[in-house]
Amino acid sequence: MTTRTVDTTKELAAFLRTRRERLDPEDFDLPSRQQARRTPGLRREEVAELAGVSIDYIVRLEQARGLRPSANVVEALARALRLAPDERAYLFDLARQRPRNADEPATAAAPPLARLVADLSPLPAMLMNHRYDILAWNGEMARLLLDFDTLPPSQRNAMWLCLVHPDIREFYVDRERVVREGVAHLRAAWAAHPEDRALTDLITEITDRNEEFARLWAERDVKVNGRGHKVLRHPDAGVIAVDFEVLMPLQDPDQRLMICRAADDESRSALNRLYSR
Known about the structure:
This protein is of the alpha+beta class. The protein has helices spanning 8-22, 44-51, 55-62, 71-80, 85-94, 111-119, 139-144, 158-164, 175-192, 197-209, 211-218, 265-276; strands spanning 125-129, 134-137, 227-234, 238-247, 255-262. It has a five-stranded antiparallel beta sheet.
């Protein structure tokens, strides 16, 4: 599988199809059908009825026949398919109905944000762009995760490290969830930045060399995490549970500031021991 470019027409078709197939017909107040269902989820005609469009329109959308739905139709489809907020935003991105930033993606930390990352010590903090490239970090984050200075810039990517780097692959206790959420975030970023060649190259590289990523990417889950909880298996400090918050600066909306805090007293003590070394 390769993802060299974002073919939004085909991706829109596939996304609509997978969301339709995941729905349970029993959750909808639809007229009963006598014939048995041969495929999972709702039928195309049922989605058309719920969205207020023709069956032919749904067929053409799912067959990637060049339609570009209006914002009103996208909204109707999102309601009919009961999309979560992140999935709804993803659908709008694929349909090219959301305003987008014309600036080039950030490849370096904005100086004020780099200073802020340092000033946040002793809280572990780092700055990333939408594709998980790590642009800046403080000493606490380097002690908690990895000394990023030892890596070439091309490998300073949180998704790549989680999947490929030998020291990080088994770092997370709930690794399946962490990777799944990371892939879902990356898919949302991919739709929102279709011209970002570095992002599509990154996805292609990881897909080609990592079965786990390829499997999760094909599921087309979409989710953007602004906060969460992770449990780390640190080689020196033992198990550390952290809560994290991701903030997007108004002046630099393509950059994301991640701040971590100990989730409990034991983890706080473990972090203090780690920082004192």
